[in-house]
TrEMBL record:
<feature type="active site">
    <location>
        <position position="221"/>
    </location>
</feature>
<dbReference type="InterPro" id="IPR015590">
    <property type="entry name" value="Aldehyde_DH_dom"/>
</dbReference>
<dbReference type="GO" id="GO:0036243">
    <property type="term" value="F:succinate-semialdehyde dehydrogenase (NADP+) activity"/>
</dbReference>
<comment type="similarity">
    <text>Belongs to the aldehyde dehydrogenase family.</text>
</comment>
<dbReference type="InterPro" id="IPR029510">
    <property type="entry name" value="Ald_DH_CS_GLU"/>
</dbReference>
<keyword id="KW-0560">Oxidoreductase</keyword>
<protein>
    <submittedName>
        <fullName>Succinate-semialdehyde dehydrogenase [NADP(+)]</fullName>
        <ecNumber>1.2.1.79</ecNumber>
    </submittedName>
</protein>
<feature type="domain" description="Aldehyde dehydrogenase">
    <location>
        <begin position="3"/>
        <end position="439"/>
    </location>
</feature>
<dbReference type="InterPro" id="IPR016162">
    <property type="entry name" value="Ald_DH_N"/>
</dbReference>
<dbReference type="Pfam" id="PF00171">
    <property type="entry name" value="Aldedh"/>
</dbReference>
<dbReference type="InterPro" id="IPR050740">
    <property type="entry name" value="Aldehyde_DH_Superfamily"/>
</dbReference>
<dbReference type="InterPro" id="IPR016161">
    <property type="entry name" value="Ald_DH/histidinol_DH"/>
</dbReference>
<dbReference type="InterPro" id="IPR016163">
    <property type="entry name" value="Ald_DH_C"/>
</dbReference>
Amino acid sequence: MLKSFDPSNGDLVGEVATTPAEDIDAIVADAHLAQKKWAKLNVTERVAILNSAYEDLAQQINPLAELLSREMGKDLRRSSGEVTGVAMGSPYTTDGVARAIQPKQIDGGMIEYVPLGVAAVISPWNYPLAMANNLIVPALIAGNSVVFKPSEETPLIAQAFAETLNRHLPSNVLQIVHGGRDLGKAIVEADVNIIAFTGSQAAGKDIMRRSASGLKRLVMELGGNDPMIVLPDADLKRAAQFAVASSFENAGQMCTSTERIYVHESVADRFETIVFDIAQRYQSGPWDQQGVNIGPIINNTQRGKVIDHIDDAISKGARVLLGGGDHPEHYVAPTVLADITPDMRMETEETFGPVVAISRYKDIDTAVDRANDSEFGLGAVVFGNKAAVEIGRRLEAGMIGINGGPGGGGDAPWVGAKQSGIGFHGSDDGHRQFTQVRVIG
Ligand code: NAD
């Protein structure tokens, strides 16, 4: 059995049956059979089926949000937001995918977007519903069947989600399997046609290697180490509010959370003061405690890594503005560090914890160079007035936020540059990556 624990106290929340890796080939074979029938439905029929599943999900927002909180640790307001976003937002995505994959007339023929076959969807724990759903919706509407492996940290919420969808979908169009990374590897190596993955860079590289022999299609949304640049003419209060909120969001366990802040020396003292003022009001604790906005860290390994990054920075000369010392069991205390330097792990690696990490710069070229000196390129943010957009264009990232978070609203793609991903989802181009493009004429 795969056990699921409450990260705020280590108590058992529940368990599900683990899927033996030897069963994967038969599961994928069933998925191929189901896909052939699913693809025979027209896209309007597929949209109608999925939309009725989301109506069903919308009836269960409170119990699902509570389960998500218990299993993953984020507070109930954030869990409710995630479940609501999936239940209410997905019908827009189903329509968007349906539009994107309509055949297009060209001179002397047609461009068509046909299903690929079986999609493996492998997802992380930090937004356990949203991340899985972002990949499952386009895969299904495009006429693929799905073998879904959620994170071993959050199997229960994934199981509840899949059971709801499966009350509406034909049998075996969506199959959920449970296990850790070895099961993920077995799925990648099985007879699947596309692997849609959200998770760490290390796992992404392993998936790319394992899928090479079959030249399987890949959509991979990977880690980040997002920089933020604060220009001298920035609205400092807004910048500081964003810096703290983005660094602490989901206890820092967000792929586009701000990981490194470069602030011009002329405004750095004031920026640090406002950051401290805001940050010291944050409160960590379990999901059901009033006023909590920072939850536990998902597991001991991840918590140990965040604390190592903090200790490494302090040992190399970082100035502690908040926290940095004692961390309650299961948590990392909200921490603000200044004087971060390029030799610190916090600068070069994804920390994924509730830490605001501030550096000062004299000239903008140094700030841009340090922001770009990373193998990651997911999001980046610039706060400032006159030159903000121009500086933003110099940053090597897929999503650049100007005076706000990265990632456009509406139907913008969710896209990483460099080693933060390959392929992407969202937008017409993203939706079409779940299809084979075919030219007839
Ligand atoms: P992870 O890579 O450890 O695990 C993600 C999923 O992949 C899990 O289901 C896991 O069992 C499976 N897995 C692990 N190794 C595998 C392998 N070699 N082959 C196949 N499957 C494998 O990541 P995590 O700790 O669950 O999630 C945190 C990471 O995800 C962070 O790096 C974060 O930045 C990233 N993330 C990225 C985005 C994005 O949109 N770019 C969104 C959320 C999270």
